[in-house]
Specification:
- The chain has 364 residues and is α/β, with parallel strands linked by helices.
- It has a six-stranded mixed β-sheet with strand order 1-2-3-6-5-4. It has a two-stranded antiparallel sheet with strand order 7-8.
- Strand 7 and strand 8 form a beta hairpin.
- Helix 11 packs across helix 12.
- The relative contact order is 0.09.
């Protein structure tokens, strides 16, 4: 069993992930198992069905395992989807301990609580032949194997799982899902591939797995994927430019519409105001309130009417007259009293009475 980690193969590439989207893995030690599944099952697995490989490492102190009820940890060892898997799913679920002490405790708990007539995995059957086969390998694999009744799900509880053991667990793949091989048994090349997972060197395995990739012509798929759309780069760039231009025009159009709506509202407001004012003028009679006011008030004399400006003089008698204050005001040539004097009079030299008369025009 080789200990080289297979970080990637053509069958585990990004393009292969798209081609084999129904064969996946999770939390695995390397990409060999996934590649093997895709190579062996590609012609056997119906397109509407899925295969999933998952690995779960248990890292719990053995003392904690001994003190805690088996129910709590068995629920952690066995995910719910294995008890009630979708009918289209095939699953390989590997549970192993992070060290030998933990792994031994896991196997003891599983042995006592899982399988037919047990609380857990009651619809699963222990595969003793697989246990014996792997225990006899050059590097002993101490594990328990449980398959469900329809042979679509297998759970492997391993004491520990190093990279060598992970590789060798692929050798009996045809035993995990026997229904897929019933009418289509392994050919010589496929047998050689599975056998190579237990070899001391990875060279044979890597060579064989790539031969399967060549048969699938994944290289052509990679080239198609990488060059897809390359010849239409200019057109796609131009499309993006035109889309941006259209969006800009749409924004400008919307802005102009908003401006037109605003102007229309202002015009409507002005027209309503105009109609109201015109109607007010039409309803006015010859004798308005203002006119009647001036007609009735004999002490008011209109001097000038220009536009909206109305100048008038109010006549009346003074009830209180302070001669001294009046004279003081009249003698102040900077007061408003002299604001309307003829500009020819540069400096009035008038007595208070003369000033009054001058302003009234009696001596003008």
């Amino acid at each position: 069993m080789f200990n080289k980690i297979i970080h990637s193969t053509t069958l585990s590439s990004e393009i292969a992930d798209k081609l084999f989207s129904n064969i996946t893995d999770s939390s695995v030690l390397d990409k060999s198992f996934l590649s093997t599944l895709r190579a062996i099952l590609r012609k056997r697995l119906p397109q509407d069905k899925n295969v999933r490989l998952t690995c779960k490492e248990i890292s719990i102190h053995p003392d904690n395992l001994a003190r805690t009820s088996a129910v709590q940890y068995m629920n952690e060892f066995i995910p719910g989807y294995l008890s009630y898997p979708p009918p289209s799913d095939y699953n390989i679920h590997i549970v192993y301990g992070s060290n030998q002490d933990i792994g031994q405790k896991i196997l003891e708990m599983v042995q006592a609580n899982a399988g037919a007539n047990k609380r857990f995995l009651s619809n699963y059957t222990k595969q003793e032949d697989l246990k014996v086969f792997y225990a006899a390998q050059a590097r002993r694999v101490n594990a328990l194997f449980y398959s469900n009744n329809n042979k679509q799900n297998i759970v492997i509880f391993a004491e520990v799982l190093d990279i060598r053991q992970f590789h060798v667990l692929q050798m009996m793949l045809f035993k995990y899902f026997p229904s897929l091989f019933a009418e289509n048994p392994l050919n010589d090349t496929e047998k050689a591939l599975l056998k190579s997972t237990g070899g001391m060197s990875s060279a044979e395995y890597e060579s064989l797995i790539e031969s399967f990739a060549k048969e699938l012509d994944i290289r052509a798929e990679i080239i198609r994927s990488q060059l897809e759309g390359f010849e239409s780069v200019f057109e796609r760039v131009r499309i993006k430019e035109i889309q941006d231009e259209i969006q800009n025009h749409q924004h400008q159009y919307a802005s102009h519409l908003d401006s037109l709506r605003s102007l229309t509202m202002k015009i409507d407001d002005c027209q309503w105001m105009l109609m109201g004012l015109e109607e007010t003028i039409e309803k006015q009679t010859e004798s308005s309130e203002l006119m009647e006011y001036f007609m009735c008030n004999k002490n008011l004399s209109i001097s000038k009417v220009v536009g909206m400006t109305l100048e008038f003089v109010a006549h009346g008698y003074m009830d209180v007259y302070d001669a001294e204050a009046f004279e003081h005001y009249v003698e102040n040539y900077k007061s408003n009293l002299y604001a309307s004097l003829n500009p020819d009079i540069s400096k009035p030299q008038l007595t208070p009475i003369e000033a009054i008369r001058k302003l009234e025009g009696s001596d003008a």
